[in-house]
Design goal:
Elements: E1 7-12, H1 16-27, E2 31-37, H2 41-51, E3 54-56, H3 59-65, E4 70-73, H4 80-89, E5 93-97, H5 104-116, E6 121-124, H6 131-142, E7 148-158, H7 159-165, H8 171-187, E8 192-200, E9 212-219, E10 224-233, E11 240-248, E12 252-257, E13 264-266, E14 269-272, E15 281-282, E16 285-286, H9 289-303, H10 311-330, E17 334-335
Parallel strand pairs: 1-2, 1-4, 2-3, 4-5, 5-6, 7-10
Antiparallel strand pairs: 7-11, 8-9, 8-17, 9-10, 11-12, 13-14, 15-16
Helix pairs in contact: 1-9, 4-5, 5-10, 8-10
């Protein structure tokens, strides 16, 4: 780590989220965007030109040539382990976009690499900076709701998402992992022991995707939780809907993320409902909770303070998702093994 008080960073992955990470890092006063890297050389060059940094298409070359303190990895979870391995071995701290990995085996290997190479790892679970979810978590921890009885969490989007992804990424990893991590936070210190998942596929079958999945999770202290994931909202409707209900012996909490207060209508164009919470763009840059997340990583990496995201919980979220996948295959409840 350099002693300048500025974290020298690179971004691996120059797609949708990599662009946002690069923009935010380049705007922070205590960070410097040194380089971006992507196997798609044209994408790397475009982003490097826009953010005034160097472009690479090979991680090893970038790590050898640049003096870096940390790397933000924003590639698909399919490639998380491949990207983490050289970065960890080079001794660079890592901000890793959610989920930590595509399965438990790879998640545990990523944790091992971080520990073996004595680098710090933070998984980008952005709901840790959404006050609605965090306030609920703190209310539960204070005992305001009493003992948690049940939970229901829902996250929906249009089938435009599944058309675009065409089976490359599951709804569990693309969006559902947020709710699995939140569920585990709300239930602490209880741990999930059983998962039962059921799905419906009508609208999205041509795109190699499911319409809706209902996941019932049972915890070792008796809590029952349901997570509903849906990619079947009609195009032109609200592009993103999320909600949560936590019921306890003394109270309940309700989260509703739907209408974010802005609708834009144009002649001969569908109504637009801009995303204003997590990564809205104005003044030419990315703001919102993603900026808070990356700023937290930078500040706490420089100071050595703990990160807000629990790596153990990030692994547990993927482990629970693995059990849901197994349940979808067998049609039966599945015990969550450790």
């Amino acid at each position: 780590m350099n002693n300048s008080g500025v974290l020298r960073m690179a971004v691996v992955g120059c797609g949708y989220f990599g662009e946002k990470h690069a923009d935010i890092i380049g705007q922070l006063s205590n960070a410097e965007l040194v380089a971006v890297c992507d196997k798609n050389w044209e994408a790397a060059k475009r982003l490097a030109q826009r953010t005034s940094c160097k472009a690479y298409e090979d991680i090893e070359e970038m790590l050898a040539k640049e003096q870096l303190d940390a790397v933000s990895i924003a590639v698909s979870e399919t490639f998380h382990l491949d990207a983490v391995r050289p970065v960890a071995k080079a001794g660079k701290h890592i901000l890793l976009e959610k989920p930590i990995a595509r399965n438990t085996e790879e998640a545990l290997e990523i944790v091992r690499l971080a520990e073996e190479n004595q680098i710090r790892l933070m998984v980008g679970h952005v709901l840790k900076w959404d006050g609605r979810y965090q306030y609920t978590a703190e209310a539960i921890a204070r005992g305001d709701l009493g003992e948690v009885i049940s939970m229901y969490l829902k996250r929906s989007s249009t089938n435009g998402t599944v058309k675009r992804l065409h089976g490359k990424i599951s709804m569990f990893h693309y969006m559902g992992v947020h709710d699995f991590e939140a569920m585990l936070t709300f239930a602490e210190p209880a741990r999930p022991v059983k998962a039962y998942a059921q799905w419906v596929g009508k609208k999205n079958v041509p795109y190699n995707g499911k319409d809706t999945v209902f996941n019932t999770i049972t915890f070792d202290n008796g809590i029952v939780a349901c997570i509903q994931l849906c990619w079947a909202l009609p195009e032109g409707s609200l592009d993103f809907v999320a909600c949560a209900e936590v019921v306890g012996t003394k109270g309940a909490s309700y989260i509703d993320v739907k209408d974010q207060g802005l609708s834009i209508y144009r002649e001969e164009a569908p109504v637009e409902y801009p995303e204003l919470t997590y990564w809205p763009e104005y003044y030419g840059h990315v703001h919102g909770k993603l900026r808070e997340e990356i700023s937290h990583f930078v500040k706490n990496t420089l100071s050595g303070e703990p990160y807000a995201v629990s790596t153990e919980r990030a692994v547990e979220a993927v482990r629970t998702i693995d059990a849901c996948f197994e349940s979808l295959k067998t049609g039966m409840p599945v015990t969550i093994e450790r």
